[in-house]
Amino acid sequence: MSKDRHGGTKRHIRVDYVKEDMIKAFCFTAKASRVFRIDRIMAIQEVKRYA
């Protein structure tokens, strides 16, 4: 969950890389690559996928 002007948005993402205060990830919610500011992330949860 991350903060936005509406209070918060829950997104499912795949992290591509972390650089300083940003995370570049593919957002399954938006179906596109996005950059997220780490200071705006309110909560995270790891999801393990099994082959």
UniProtKB/TrEMBL annotation:
Top-level taxon: Bacteria
Protein name: Uncharacterized protein
Organism, as annotated: Paenibacillus alginolyticus
Organism phylogeny: Bacteria, Bacillati, Bacillota, Bacilli, Bacillales
